[in-house]
Amino acid sequence: MSTRATPNDELRELFRETILEHYRHPRNRTTAITDPDIVAHGAHTSCGDSVHLRLRLDDAGSIAAIEWDGQGCAISQASTSMMTRRMTGKTLAEAEEIVAEFRALLRGEAIPGGAEWGELHALEGVRQFPVRMRCALLGWEALANGITRYHITRQVEAVSGAAKTL
Q1: pTM score, two decimals?
Q2: 44 and 78 in contact (C-beta within 8 Å)?
Q3: What kind of fold does domain 7-165 have according to CATH?
């Protein structure tokens, strides 16, 4: 009987190790941003997972700092940790594109442009557990919703400012 590791076994091990590393030692998990430009929240009431994001933008509109806090399963918390590392320095448009590409990655779809995902490839294993995809997407969806609200707020402020000058 052979006990050689298969590529599938190696993927499972990578998945487990990377998820546990980010869960045990989350990146950007803090509450240091005192005046965020974007605040977002995501939650799964059925399981108790939650994520709170705070972003500060630089003068060019790029994500200068992103932090989070939350609670939940290893997948939701590790995925959010990895997401914050991926988003730092990106414009909001780039961040929205990366969120869409990450959704495609989890669904097993081809990603336009062949983006390099590094440690995020570990989350591809979630595809084998469809119920856990919601966990992996929690922080990403919160970010996307926060960016959408930021754009809407800016548009409303622009219209209100224009109306005041009339």
Answers
A1: 0.86
A2: no
A3: Sufe protein. Chain: A (3.90.1010)
